[in-house]
Amino acid sequence: MVLIQGGWGVKRRLNQMGIHPGDFITVTRHGPLGGPIAIEVHGFQLALGKGVASQVLVQLTEEMTIALAGQPNCGKSTLFNHIAGFKSITANFPGTSVSFIKTRTRIDGLTCHCIDLPGTYSLTSEEPAEREARKHLLSGEVDLIINVADASLLSRSLELTLELLELEVPMILCLNMMDEAERKGIEIDAAKLEEILGIPVFPVIAATGKGVKNLFAGVRQVWEERRRGKVQRFSKDIEEVIQPLASLLGPPEKRVNERVPARFLAIKLLEKDEPLVEEVKQAGDFYRRVVPFQEKLQESHGAPSDEVISSERHALAMNIFEKVARVIRSPKRDFRTTLDQWVLHRVTGYVILALVFYGFFHFIFGIGEMVEGPLLQYFEQLNRNLESLLPEGSLSLSLVHGVLHGISGGIAIVLPYLVPFLIGLSLLEDLGYLPRVAFLMDAFMHRMGLHGKSVIPFILGYGCSVPAVMSTRILEIPQHRFVVSVLSTMIPCAARITIIFGLVAFFINPNAALAIFVLNLLVVAFFGKVMSSFSPESNLGFILEMPAYQVPSLPSTWKKSWCRIREFIMIAWPLLIAGSMVLALIEYWKLDLWINYLLLPLTGLLGLPFSVGTTLLFGLLRKELSLIMLTQALGTSEVSTVMSHTQILVFTIFVTFYMPCLATVGVLWKEIGRKGAFLAMGLTLGIATVLGLLTRGFGEFFLK
């Protein structure tokens, strides 16, 4: 804002609201029919009539797009969260970010669109997540790149830095994890590195925020100067191949991608980059003119041209590392040095794995059971008090019942188990234990015909099926991605875990709940083997970075847990309350009878109460609805007074396996196509029905 014109009344009112010349204003919406204008200033929204708005003089500011690019597990998302609040889920294992996350913010007066790209080891992409990062970097829409590098692995990180420099986009190098580099005894001369690369270099510890302010203070200057780094040259004989090929590509308008420098394209063609090669082949017969350059490089070095370029880049990165870094002492020994000797051991590793998840299980149940009982009693008493105030059988009483069931379900049934589960999962993620689980489970995954990295989507599935399906992008083989996407929908998400604990563990016993988790793993393993056997495909082998252990930061763990809990509060809980009200209206108008009669073949087959049909239908929207609707449909939160232990087990097992929620179906449709989504829905419904029948037979024979 430059100036507030008009009468003193307008100025005074805006000044009283904290709005003064020099403040930054964003127009968010124009009212219909020439109505007022909605603006955002200082984090709040304000509506200004056209007359008032015309008296506020503003100067348009430029906007820029910043991409955070780096190798997996280098701390991009942690840095991104310093800009965006907490929008990007971070974890101490590679492949956490499998799609880009974008936020709009202001940095030193500039309106910036910041993008957290998936981690990629190279711009020669292999995995879908890496292709996502490459697509944005080559789009020509990025104004500035913040290359986040792991300072403790600088020589490796510089290989991606050298590729990014070839794009000739203004760039900043963020040396993250300087504390870990110091622990390893590595001393880095940032000024020398800046001189060699020709770009600003900022040492940072993103986990604590140290150096982050200085990093973003340099953004505006780099962008205004359009400061591009120094493209590093390869050895003479390789340059004698690159430069003629770059000239052969011609001016920008004649290239397959006019937004990318010719030198970058030439190097990628020598690397036989598959997407680029296919693009060039489809554009005409130009690729046959590229082959002689590849052959020349191969003849002179005795290796394929892609290996030659990769080796040369590696040597160049090592050379730079030796100039700017030195190891001044041996790494400090701490608990992380010896922990893997126990955690990854062929015997103790599995013992620790069992103890960790057994302890995790009892941590969730212990807290949930302690909180659920008293809260349920409180809401039962509140419900009885409200019944005495309203006419029996009235619409108002039905609506109050519906609202109260939705509120009490979220507070007394879901949150007591959801909160400790998400906190525990965040601790395991931040500690760096999950890649060790993948290491231990690789042999079991291969017996299922899958890859060891498949365990990562399965673990994420215990939080939510949506990111679990999306994380299958870390798998290189399409067939594996398809199978793991379908199987990950069978993993009980946080909502279904809440149902298991809230019903089976609470009303029967914890061991019965544990048995459901074991059954789930056996079913997933069996169908993984069956599905993989239909279309076997060669395996690339197990390659997964094992990051160093990190002591979890409690504030960071809470922020990440709160980010996930907030999703339940903001999205799922309103749906629970709305669903409870809808069910109350359905029951008031006796429409639930029609729905339950429609689903009677299924509920009757499973031996479930007649009124349960509506709850299964609502569970397709959000899984939490199945539990909340169950207590409402049965008319009591004391489920064991209405349903037998066998019926509780049947209901829980059916809900654990049956069709994924609508959000997951949408992601499946996007990731594996329409047929894959319908296959997942049909398969899970069939499995749930069969398991429900078997449980009914088992329960009627062994349980009373």
Task: Explain what this protein looks like in three dimensions.
This protein is α/β, with parallel strands linked by helices and 704 residues long. It has three domains: 55 residues, SH3 type barrels (Roll); 270 residues, P-loop containing nucleotide triphosphate hydrolases (Rossmann fold); 331 residues, no CATH class. Helix content is 60%, strand content 9%. It is built from 30 helices and 13 strands. The strands form four sheets. Strands 7-8-6-9-10-12 form a six-stranded mixed β-sheet, sandwiched between helices. It has a three-stranded antiparallel β-sheet with strand order 2-3-4. Strand 2 and strand 3 form a beta hairpin. Helix 21 packs antiparallel against helix 23. The radius of gyration is 29 Å and the shape is globular. The protein starts with a strand and ends with a helix. About 2% of the residues have low confidence.
Structural class by secondary-structure content? alpha/beta
Give the number of helices.
30
Can you tell me the number of structural domains?
3
* Helix content percent band: 55-70%
Q: Describe the oligomeric state of these chains in a short phrase.
A: single chain
For the sheet with most strands, the description reads: 6 strands, mixed
The spatial strand order of the largest sheet comes to 7-8-6-9-10-12
DSSP, total strands: 13
Rg from C-alpha positions?
Answer: 29 Å
Question: Which runs of at least 5 residues are low in confidence (pLDDT < 50)?
Answer: 86-97
Average pLDDT value? 82
Distance between the termini: 75 Å
Shape: globular
Percentage of residues in strands: 5-15%
